[in-house]
Write a structure and sequence with these properties.
With 267 residues, the chain is mostly beta strands. The protein contains no helices and 18 strands.
């Protein structure tokens, strides 16, 4: 499982040409040795430089794909208008608000650049780190699939679709519950639990071929309930509360009764 760090550096899209906002860094050398870091979309993350910092040293930060929310920042965080803190004394920690969660399985990319200038006006290399931004992990029954009702013995078939967000691979579980229904073979449908792993952001759950309600008095229910999910990072995901269940109502069996009439009596 991946481990989403809370302290990283991020960008949306690589620069293909030099950007005017970056011309204020001193020199052109860039140290890109930091490993890729990953965060959740929409998160606010603090970034701190780990090297020793002496009082009075100045730091310049630049972010694309997110916005610096530390006091003194300017710019919107786009490639055309990066979010910047110009050289400021003792500014070795910033906070970044990353792009809003779009509830998908794809990632945004962003960059943070930072440079230190000493009190002697000597500058470090420009440090850059790439960060992937992933949606929060969720599972929900697709909104195109809604509850419906049938008569006892009607054909059902088909499937419902589960939508998954976050970073693949995904795992999710669901239960099937029935209060007395039978399948097309006359076998009772008992509670079942299923655990599924998939690399796709949609999954199908098959529906039974036929449902029989042996009761002649009460409707019975076939319910699929999502019970747990997570993506490829540590921690549990969320089941969307209003899309966690799908139910088929099966009306009672209908009995026509016996035919009665006035009858003649023989001697």
């Amino acid at each position: 499982m991946k481990n989403v760090t809370g302290i990283c550096l991020v960008f949306i899209g690589l620069f293909s040409v030099p950007q005017p906002a970056r011309s204020q860094f001193i020199g052109t050398e860039t140290d890109s040795s930091l490993t890729l870091a990953e965060v959740r979309k929409g998160s606010i993350v603090e970034y701190s430089l780990q090297a020793d910092a002496n009082p009075g040293e100045e730091f310049r930060w630049e972010v694309t794909g997110g916005k610096i929310i530390t006091s003194g920042a300017v710019g919107e965080g786009t490639i055309a208008d990066p979010s910047i803190i110009e050289f400021a004394a003792d500014m070795h920690t910033i906070e970044v608000q990353w792009l809003p969660d779009d509830s998908t399985s794809g990632f945004f990319t962003g960059n943070i650049w930072v440079q230190k200038k000493t009190t002697s006006n000597c500058a470090s290399p420009v440090m850059k780190q790439k960060i992937y931004q992933w949606s929060m992990p969720t599972a929900s029954i697709n909104r195109n699939y809604t509850d419906f009702s049938i008569c006892s013995g009607d054909l059902v078939g088909g499937y419902i679709v589960v939508d998954l967000t976050g970073a693949a691979d995904f795992s999710y579980s669901y239960s099937i519950q029935s209060n007395g229904l039978k399948d097309e073979n006359g076998e009772a449908i008992n509670t079942e639990h299923h655990a599924i792993t998939t690399s796709n952001d949609t999954a199908r759950i098959a529906l039974p071929g036929r449902l029989v309600n042996p009761s002649t008095e009460a409707s019975k229910y076939y319910t699929i309930e999502l019970t747990a999910m997570n993506d490829d990072f540590l921690g549990d995901g969320e089941i969307v509360s209003d899309r966690k269940e799908f139910t088929i109502t099966v009306y009672p069996s209908v009995q026509v009764g016996t035919i009665e009439s006035v009858r003649l009596n023989r001697r």
